[in-house]
Amino acid sequence: MRPLLSSIAFLCLLALPLAAQEEALHGTWEGTFTDDEIGEGTMRLTFQADGTFDFDLFIEELTYPGDEAEVPDELLDELTEITEMFSALEGISAHGGTYQVSGDSLWVYNDNVVQYIVDGESVDVIEFWTPLLRFSARFFAAFAAAFEEVSEEDYSAFEQEIFDQMLADMLAELDEEPLGLGLTLSGIYAIEDDTLSITTTTTDVHGVETVETVEFHRIDVASAVAPTSWGALKAAWRP
Question: DSSP per residue over 71-85, as a string?
Answer without folding.
Answer: S-GGGHHHHHHHHHH
